[in-house]
Design brief:
The chain has 325 residues and is mainly α. Among the domains are: 5-82, 434 Repressor (Amino-terminal Domain) (Orthogonal Bundle); 124-212, no CATH class. The protein contains 13 helices and 2 strands; from the N terminus they run αααααααααββαααα. It is flat and about 95 Å long. It starts with a helix and ends with a helix.
Length: 325
């Protein structure tokens, strides 16, 4: 009776649990004979690592109960839950196919850093976005309140003869503040309802928005550039419409690819997935082997095309600098 290591790990990660969480779940279970079905986190790691040993019946029973599956699923005698699809049911949409490679890599790096699988992050995305959206709206309310106070001061800064007509500017500012308030109350997080006249003549309302500004402000405030970087603006961002471009766990990616641009290209373009990489290659002492393994999986034709494109961009930029000088 052997437990399939990959099945235990997959079922655990699908629930967003760490080995310790799964161990805690088993500690609350008892078998029909009243015995504890607890399985230690150390045992779980050993099982998932594929170490050869025959687990006790209570170990199999405890893991199966905690994971909510039949024991045969863990031994391979029964199919995994997602493989039991009714004959007439439609195939589920593969969310991963809708996400561009560089953002799939962001999920993988996040999982590696924090131990949270992509499935859990996807399910939690509405909560996380709502919290950020409400944080952005609150910041805008605070800024608006300060603007209203300044407008009140302007209104009082002119004399009876109208020689100091700051009040004229106050009327214009009040119109802008009213537009911002209406946008906030409508939960217009990207500021698409704000009248164009509210912007300075040199400003481009399509290049940024209040939510993108808030994310940039938040990332700068955290001062955690090793973990998260948010770029300025959204007009040319390689991100969903209205969002800024970003990078997470950049130092982790730097460690993985070392100084190899080809290895970085392979991961960012989806030619290689971290999940497919053998665990032993992720060790710090395996840098050369890891980089070679990634580079070998990058199609030569695509790499040549990419490097030629980058070289042409660099040449164009150099020509522009020369023309300015």
């Amino acid at each position: 009776m052997q437990i399939k290591p990959k099945r235990v790990r997959t079922l655990r990660e699908n629930k967003g649990w760490s080995p310790e969480t799964l161990a805690e779940r088993t500690s609350k279970l008892k078998g029909e004979d009243g015995r504890s079905l607890a399985v230690s986190a150390k045992t779980i790691r050993r099982l998932e690592g594929g170490q050869k040993h025959r687990p006790r019946a209570n170990t199999l029973c405890g893991l199966a109960k905690a994971l909510g599956v039949e024991r045969g699923v863990l031994t391979g005698d029964q199919p995994m839950p997602d493989e039991r699809r009714p004959e007439n049911s439609k195939p589920s949409v593969q969310i991963a196919a809708l996400i561009r490679p560089r953002y799939r890599l962001a999920y993988a790096l996040t999982k590696q850093r924090y131990g949270v699988p992509a499935s859990a992050l996807i399910e939690m995305a509405p909560l996380l976005f709502t919290l950020l959206a409400e944080g952005s709206l609150r910041r805008r309310r605070e800024l608006l309140a300060r603007a209203r106070e300044a407008i009140a001061v302007l209104n009082g800064q002119h004399d009876a003869a109208g020689r100091l007509a700051y009040g004229l500017a106050a009327y214009r500012a009040e119109d802008i503040a009213d537009g911002e308030e209406a946008s906030i109350e409508a939960s217009d997080v990207f500021g698409r309802m704000i009248p164009e006249g509210s912007y300075d003549a040199s400003a481009d309302p399509d290049a940024t928005n209040p939510f993108a500004d808030y994310l940039k402000h938040l990332s700068d405030d955290l001062d955690a550039t090793a973990r998260v970087e948010v770029e300025e603006g959204t007009a040319w961002a390689d991100a969903p419409d209205g969002f800024p471009a970003y990078a997470v766990c950049r130092t982790d990616l730097d460690r993985i690819v070392a100084s190899s641009p080809r290895a970085r290209f392979g991961l960012e373009q989806g030619h290689v997935r971290l999940a497919d990489m053998p665990d032993e290659l992720l060790a710090d002492h395996a840098t050369a082997e890891r980089v070679r393994w990634i580079e070998e999986r990058v199609p030569e034709e695509e790499w040549v095309e990419w490097t030629a494109m980058i070289a042409s961009i660099d040449l164009d930029q150099s020509s522009d600098v020369g023309a300015v000088q």
